[in-house]
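Late entry, written up from scratch paper. The run itself happened at the end of the previous shift, but nothing got recorded in the book at the time, so transcribing now.
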Amino acid sequence: MATDAVHPVDQTLPLPRLLPLALQHVLVMYAGAVAVPLIIGRALRLPPEDIAFLISADLFACGLATLVQSFGLPGVGIRLPVMMGVTFASVGPMLSMAAAPEIGLLGIYGSVIAAGVFGIVVAPFISRLLPLFPPVVTGTIIMVIGISLMRVGINWAGGGLPTLTRVVDGVPGAFPNPNYAQLGGLAIAGIVLCVILALLKWGKGFVANVAVLLGIVAGSVIAAALGIMHFEKVAAAPWFDVVLPFHFGTPQFHLVPIATMCIVMVVVMIESLGMFLALGDITGKKIDQEALSRGLRADGVGTLLGGIFNTFPYTSFSQNVGLVGVTGVRSRWVTVAGGVIMLLLGLLPKMAALVEAVPQVVLGGAGLVMFGMVAATGARILTSVDFKGNANNLFVVAIAVGFGMIPMVAPNFWRNLPHELHPLLESGILLSAIVAVALNAFFNGVASADRAREEASAAAAAAEHV
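Output as recorded:
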């Protein structure tokens, strides 16, 4: 007798159960979601109100992208329990763009919009590139992302950059930052780190999942008590406001930044493939070629929406994939509700102003954990790689990581190459990606598509709980 049983992925839950589960997904990703606009906004030295707007725009676009992915549109969306957020893979290239005066924020938005369109167009073909990105490549790239971002977390813990640029007699120069690495700030960062570690060790279930967020809250309370955290901007911010497209002006389109962001988009979509396959295993939902294309197309649509609504490239958040496995709740309507919550948070400027008011030293203690977790995810993916039976994999990782470190340890290494290439060459993430793909193809060849899917699914499953 035929059955019309609804798959657990499509089951609706009663509201009293749905909302707490949705809020849990939001809390698990919240710290990571607001980290990127904080990083980019402060790198561009934007005023506090603009950084607060970036955070509002990011939360709003997070909600839109999540709805596109989980609820779905015709031909778009994987329709699985996925939460979308800004990918950390884009931070390194965007920091390089932010440092170039001729590119700046509007150039970043132009590259994001172009990358979103690129993602929509190439989505059906990306799965064919999966054999170029086995775990030895994706693990290396993600590890380099985490290592590269550690510099940001360390400087946050120090209270800002160690040197400041000032113009004296019309000549710009670098001067030591007198407030850098003050003992009081280091102590707050250390307390935040200790709180997070304590919650990870002794907290259970949901408390452990939101340890980073609770650590930031604890640090903010201490900073407010010491008079380091100020709330004037929070009081002045309106309760409700609309996130309008192109708030900062008309996006600018530059060839090299666009090419750089398109490469980031390919890396992000390959990572998404692994996450979708792992999520299909967790939920028991069959993921075919058409479903993968819809999910990847949603990455492109989310990124396009990000560029339009004043934010950055989007991808599925791995910590939320892990949360699905931990809770066993497979309904996509939970993340649909989470997307609605993110939309509402994006329309509350006071919330964004409160996040922007958190001192850098507080974020520093959490940043060491957040960015270290990204590196740890890459390391965990690499544990599925056969190093003993195939020593060539060691060379792939070693040389790709070495190239990825060049912009960090020797910023002027490429200074004699054409200036137009600097946004590409100054991104350790993209350098490591290119070198890892090339060396893997050289040493190991290209695996079959079926084998690549199996490896990607296994690697994503290995990384989902990090």
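The chain has a mean pLDDT of 80.
(Scratch paper discarded after transcription.)
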